[in-house]
Write a structure and sequence with these properties.
mainly alpha, single chain, 61% helix
Length: 227
C-alpha cells in the first residue's frame, strides 16, 4: 500500500486576522439605532462585516479545506490497516460465541437429563414408601405420597460453565428487540420527522394544513453577499 502524499497548507496570519476583527467589532460594539440616520448608517457597517467575512474566508478557507482533506486522508490511511484487524477480531468473536452457545445448549440438556433422573429416583422412593405405609393400613397417607410422586418437580441441577474462563474476556449481557408489528407500537415511541414538515411549510407557507402544527411567518434581515 502506497502512502498518499499531501502538503500541509500554511497557516494564515492570525495577527492580521485579529487586527481586522478588533477594528470591525470595535466600530459596532454598543451601536444603538435611535433614528433613521443611524439605521441607514448601520448598513455601511453591515457591508464592512461582509467584506471582512469574505477576507477571512480567503485567508482561512484553503487552510481549513487542506486540513479537512488531510483528516480524511489520515482516516482512510488508518482504516487500510485497522479495518482488516477489526474484521478479523469480529470473526473470531463470532466463532467463540457460536461455540459458547452450542456448549451452553449441551450443558443445559445434560443438566435437564440429570434432573429428570433424580426426579424419577425420588418419585420411586415415594412410591416405595407409599406401598409400605399402605400395607400398614394408612391408605390416606399412601394416597398423598403417590400424588406427590406423580407431581414431583425435577430438582434444580447446577449447570457447569459452558466454556473456560479466560483472563481479559468479559461477557456483557444486553437486551435486544425487534419490531414485529409497527401498527400497534405506542405513539410515544415514534420520532417526529420535522424535515418533512419543513419541506411542506417552505413550499406552501400558511396554506400548509398539518394537524397539530402551528405555522407563522418571521422576517429576518440579511445581506446578499455573505452569511
Amino acid at each position: 500500500m502506497s502512502t498518499p502524499q499531501f502538503v500541509l497548507p500554511s497557516a494564515p496570519d492570525q495577527r492580521q486576522a485579529a487586527l481586522l476583527v478588533k477594528s470591525l467589532t470595535k466600530q459596532s460594539e454598543g451601536y444603538v439605532i435611535t433614528d433613521e440616520d443611524g439605521f441607514i448608517a448601520s448598513w455601511a457597517l453591515i457591508e464592512r462585516h461582509d467584506a471582512a467575512i469574505t477576507k477571512i474566508g480567503e485567508w482561512f478557507n484553503p487552510f481549513v479545506d487542506g486540513l479537512h482533506k488531510l483528516h480524511k486522508m489520515a482516516i482512510g490511511l488508518r482504516a487500510q490497516f485497522l479495518d482488516p484487524i477489526v474484521n478479523s477480531k469480529r470473526a473470531l468473536l463470532g466463532e467463540r460465541a457460536k461455540y459458547r452457545t452450542e456448549q451452553e445448549r449441551a450443558k443445559k440438556e445434560k443438566a435437564d437429563r440429570d434432573a429428570e433422573i433424580l426426579r424419577k429416583a425420588q418419585a420411586k422412593e415415594l412410591e416405595k414408601e407409599a406401598k409400605k405405609i399402605e400395607k400398614s393400613g394408612d391408605v390416606e397417607t399412601a394416597s398423598v405420597l403417590r400424588e406427590q410422586a406423580a407431581t414431583l418437580p425435577a430438582p434444580i441441577v447446577p449447570i457447569a460453565p459452558a466454556v473456560s474462563k479466560q483472563a481479559g474476556s468479559v461477557l456483557k449481557a444486553s437486551w435486544k428487540f425487534a419490531v414485529d408489528n409497527e401498527a400497534i407500537v405506542p405513539h410515544e415511541y415514534f420520532t417526529l420527522d420535522e424535515s418533512k414538515i419543513r419541506r411542506v411549510v417552505n413550499a406552501l407557507g400558511d396554506k400548509a394544513n398539518i394537524s397539530g402544527v402551528r405555522i407563522w411567518q418571521e422576517t429576518a434581515e440579511h445581506s446578499r453577499t455573505s452569511r
